[in-house]
Design a protein that fits this description.
Residues 1-18 have low confidence and may be disordered. Strands 1, 2, 3, 4, 5, 6, 7, 8 and 9 form a 9-stranded mixed beta sheet that branches. The protein has helices at 2-14, 18-35, 73-83, 86-108, 122-126, 130-141, 154-157, 161-172, 188-194, 222-236, 249-258, 274-286, and strands at 39-48, 54-65, 69-71, 115-119, 148-152, 176-182, 199-202, 240-243, 262-263. It has 12 helices and 9 strands. Helices cover 50% and strands 18% of the residues. The structure holds ligand C2E and calcium ion (3 copies). The site of one calcium ion has 4 residues, from loops. This is EAL domain-containing protein. Residues 23-285 form the EAL domain.
């Protein structure tokens, strides 16, 4: 009977309970990974569509697991948010990105890179020490406030007064806020009035298929309608735009026709190490 009880418990955890168990293990392992330096930051260039000049960069975290290889953030950021580990993890990405950006500016000059961005999750915006962490990262690295972009999503922003106060305080410091994955939320439009965004990042889902001719005249092309509306609205409000997930030259061309000047995506450049990004800036300087 004992044996069978144990077996059914095992079956249960391997079945329904598995995702929960996996997340708990992941959460514990993440703490160790952070301490052991297994989390690394890669940088994806953000380019001007007209001439592919680098104007910015987005920091993206990777987990170099000793046995499982490189794990994508989509797999461990949710666990980090649930366990609260996103706060120290995010602080690490923040400090790393600020130091790296300051180093690039020192080496390649003030025109090499306009700004460096990173992702901030809801939990971080709720952390009472967040503004102090950002201030310390800027002071310690010497990166000017106006060079830092904090990317936030709609769900993170719509979290009440405390988060709103934090966002306004960051804006007052001169830090630029970007609305990430724009257009995917339920209240994207009212959001633009409700918080001090400087940049709108058009979600990849609106870039996918944008180059496909649906047979209608360009002005009526359904695939292009959202992308066009977003860029027009952004410009009317004085916001900058970035088109995300640009995977082909055809997409880049359509986006330019619609009014986008800046893009990010595999067609333009993949996420790369800090060293590789330095090579890119060096090549751009001597071009
Ligand atoms: P995101 O902020 O929307 O970042 C863009 C994601 O799209 C990145 O995935 C990037 O590698 C990928 N990407 C860029 N260009 C293309 C393209 O042309 N095609 C396709 N298919 N994908 C493209 P990644 O690095 O796996 O990150 C996934 C998400 O994880 C991010 O989405 C962000 O929400 C989150 N994340 C990554 N790093 C951090 C971090 O340091 N902190 C927090 N809180 N979240 C992070
Ligand atoms: Ca982002
Ligand atoms: Ca502002
Ligand atoms: Ca995004």
């Amino acid at each position: 009977a004992k044996q069978r009880g144990k077996a059914s418990f095992v079956r249960y955890t391997e079945g329904m309970g598995e995702p929960v168990l996996a997340h708990m293990q992941l959460g514990g392992e993440l703490r160790r990974a952070l301490d052991d330096g297994e989390l690394r930051v890669v940088y994806q260039p953000i380019l001007r569509l007209a001439d592919h000049r680098v104007i910015g960069v987005e920091a993206l975290v990777r987990w170099h697991h000793p046995t499982r290889g490189v794990i994508s953030p989509a797999e461990f950021i949710p666990a980090a948010e649930r366990t609260g580990l996103i706060v120290p993890l995010g602080r690490y990405v923040l400090r790393e990105t600020c130091h790296q950006a300051a180093a690039w500016l020192a080496e390649y000059g003030p025109d090499a890179l306009e700004e460096a961005g990173l992702n901030v999750s809801a939990r971080q915006l709720h952390d009472p020490d967040f503004v102090a962490d950002v201030t310390a990262a800027l002071t310690d690295s010497g990166l000017p406030c106006r060079r830092l972009v904090l990317e936030v999503t709609e769900s993170a922003v719509l979290r009440g007064q405390q988060v709103s106060r934090t966002l306004y305080e960051l804006d007052r410091m001169g830090i630029r806020l970007a609305l990430d994955d724009f257009g995917t939320g339920e209240s994207s439009l009212s959001l633009l009035r409700a918080f001090p965004a400087a940049i709108v990042k058009l979600d990849k889902s609106f870039v996918d298929g944008i180059e496909i001719d649906d047979g209608r005249p360009a002005a009526a092309d359904a695939r292009q309608a959202v992308a066009r509306a977003v860029v027009q609205l952004a410009h009317a409000l004085g916001l900058d735009t970035v088109a995300e997930g640009v995977e082909s030259a055809e997409q880049a061309a359509v986006l330019r026709d619609l009014g986008y000047t800046v893009g990010q995506g595999y067609h333009l450049a993949r996420p790369m190490t800090a060293g590789e990004f330095g090579v890119l800036l060096d090549r751009q300087r001597s071009a």
